[in-house]
Amino acid sequence: MATAIWRKPSSFRSFYRCVYTRTLSQCRSSIPPASPPTAGSIHRPSLPFLQTVSPVVAELNSLGICRRYLSNSTTAAADHKEKPSSSNTSSEGTQNAGGSQQSSNDAGKPVRGGPVSWLSFLLLLATGIGIILYYDKKKKQHIEEISNASKAVKEGPSAGKAAIGGPFSLINHDGKRVTEKDFLGKWTLVYFGFTHCPDICPDELQKLAAAIDKIKEKAGIEVVPLFISVDPERDTVEQVCEYVKEFHPNLIGLTGNSDEIKKVARAYRVYYMKTAEEDSDYLVDHSIVMYLMDPNMEFVKFFGKNNDVDSLTAGVIKEINQHKR
Q: Which of 89, 163, 222, 247 lies most in the core, judged by the most C-beta atoms within 10 Å?
């Protein structure tokens, strides 16, 4: 009943007013007309109508209490029903937020089950290592083949000849003009230098003279030693003649003018240049090379400053023997 009354508050208000109005009318009809009070007659009336009103008031109070109770209960129930919905809403919002956060986190992570797996990565790594090892092995084999081939090649005459040597016309230490044709039919060792050289030229000519004698002694081959000056201004015929006699009796000295010396030096690829000059004393920087020429006055091999007498002797004999084969 209380629930039905609470669900229709307008009916309850009408019922409340009706009871209240009826009670007040009964109370007014039972009250006697008022008379002026006297001093001695003032006393507390018994108010018999209160006995009639009390049950009604109590009824009303109980109804008010019920109303407040029902109101509080219903409000609590409504609040209780709203809390789950709000909690559901909040949980849904949390789930949505969590879902969006998870989706954002998942966006930064690599997708599992992609095209590159651990197995494919290991296979790729193994293939790369195998290729590296294979090419390294092939490279070593290639180097060994080149090394073996170079060791297996026997020394012999060169397939081609260097463009060294050529025609020349100079004056020998006896004052006679000679050309390259005067040396045909003989092996020749040619050295370029100058008579005022302080140390290198004398050392090289001494080595040349000693090698000539050893070659004749060991192989029975006569080699003509030839000295060509690169200092035409000071190396006159007389100067060259006195100079060559100091090294070997068979040593031939040649000189000429500037153009003739320049031509023969260019033909034999010889470098020479005057250095610091003080009055008439100067030095000439030049190539330190000996050229072995065959009986046709064609180039065979050159020997540098690093060859001593023995290596020069052995080298010349070796080249002559290979040329005869």
A: 247
**Beta carbons of 254 and 178 less than 8 angstroms apart:** yes
- Strand partners of residue 84: none
One DSSP character per residue, 157-212 reads: --SS--S-----EEEETTS-EEEGGGGTTSEEEEEEE-TT-SSHHHHHHHHHHHHH
Q: Smallest Cα–Cα separation from 167: which of 287, 292, 266, 294?
A: 266
What single letter denotes the amino acid at residue 107? Answer: A
Q: From CA 201, how far away is CA 208, in angstroms rounded? A: 10
**pLDDT, tens digit (0-9, with 9 covering 90-100), for 199-225:** 999 999 999 999 999 999 999 999 999
Report whether 204 contacts 168 (CB < 8 A). no
Do residues 52 and 27 touch, judged by C-beta distance below 8 A?
A: yes
Q: Within 10 Å of residue 210's Cβ, how many Cβ atoms? A: 17
Q: Report percent pLDDT > 70 for the chain.
A: 58
Cβ-count burial 254-270 (b if 16+ within 10 Å, e if not):
bbbeeebbebbbeebeb
Identify the band that residue 107 occupies on the pLDDT scale cut at 50, 70 and 90. very low
User: How many angstroms separate the most distant Cα atoms in the chain?
Assistant: 195
How far is 318 from 187, CA to CA, in rounded Å?
Answer: 13
Alpha-carbon distance of 77 to 183, in angstroms, equals 137
Cα 281 versus chain centre, distance: 58
Q: State the pairing for strand pair 223-229/187-193.
A: parallel
Q: Quickly tell me which residue has 């949505």 as its tokens.
A: 96
155: left (phi over 0), alpha (psi -120 to 50) or beta: beta
